[in-house]
Amino acid sequence: MTIPDTEEPTLTVDELAARAGVTVRTVRFYGTRGLLPPPVIGPRRVGHYGAEHLSRLALIEQLQHHGMTLSAIERYLDQLPEDLSADDLAIHRALVASWGPDAPQEASREQLARRAGRELTEEDIDRLAALDALERTDDPDLFRIDPRVLHLGLRLLDVPIELETILAAHRVVLEHTRSAARELSRLFRDEVWGPERDHESVAGAERVKAKKSLSAHMQPLVVQALVIAFQRSMKQELRAWYGQDLD
Questions:
Q1: Positive or negative, the Cα torsion across 38, 41, 47, 49?
Q2: 191-217: pLDDT as tens digits
């Protein structure tokens, strides 16, 4: 499902760099490499950037965390459709992030404010915590963050949804994803590696290693399948909600 972006590009290059957690020089360099689309030129020949640029920078950052060179990232981005929205890019980033292990980091309130583009209220912090994008510490100005979720959480800060609704939605997501994970694990255990296979010649540590290797190969495939299935389901629900085709 692709819904065109309605947010007008309003960020200056300095604001974009601050929101993305990079330098202005990096933004300009990515632009010359073709990794970022050109800005929209406004009055006084000032370039303005929007949600697509921010999402693309987040995707580049995630790809770099996986060890990809700029040349490899350039080839990766060249393969993406030209009309991808900021939301589509966010989905790509989520899939890329699923390849790696959890990597919690620390961030100060000031760093979070730069990424958000404004000072964060306690309600904002509560919203980010509800999404598991961050966790409070003993220091009220220091937080443990999940970089994979933070970008999404910051984008949701200005969406007019009550915190109680966010918490309810989060519970729904956790409940159904855990249920799906349990069922898929059971199916994997019973059908792919059933009890009869445990009596084969492969034993002990080698069998455990083989299971881990097979699981590592299956995980990204399962994640992609879940995302595709969820997108299709959401598209059907939105069609029924609006009574029209959102394509």
A1: negative
A2: 666 655 554 555 566 666 666 666 666
More confidently predicted of 10 and 209: 10
Q: How confident is the model at residue 10 (pLDDT cuts 50, 70, 90)?
A: confident
Topology, domain 13-84+92-97: Multidrug-efflux Transporter Regulator; Chain: A; Domain 2 (1.10.1660)
Rounded mean pLDDT, 58-79: 85
| CA angle 176–104–110, rounded 5-degree value | 115
Residue boundaries of the structural domains of the chain = 13-84+92-97, 105-156, 163-242
Contacts of 46 (CB under 8 A, 6+ apart): 12
Q: Give 1's pLDDT tier (boundaries 50, 70, 90).
A: very low
C-alpha to C-alpha distance for 215 and 218, rounded to whole angstroms? 5
Residue 5 has pLDDT above 70, yes or no: no
Q: What span, in angstroms and rounded, lies between the C-alpha atoms of 172 and 180?
A: 12
Rg of the chain, C-alpha, whole Å: 21
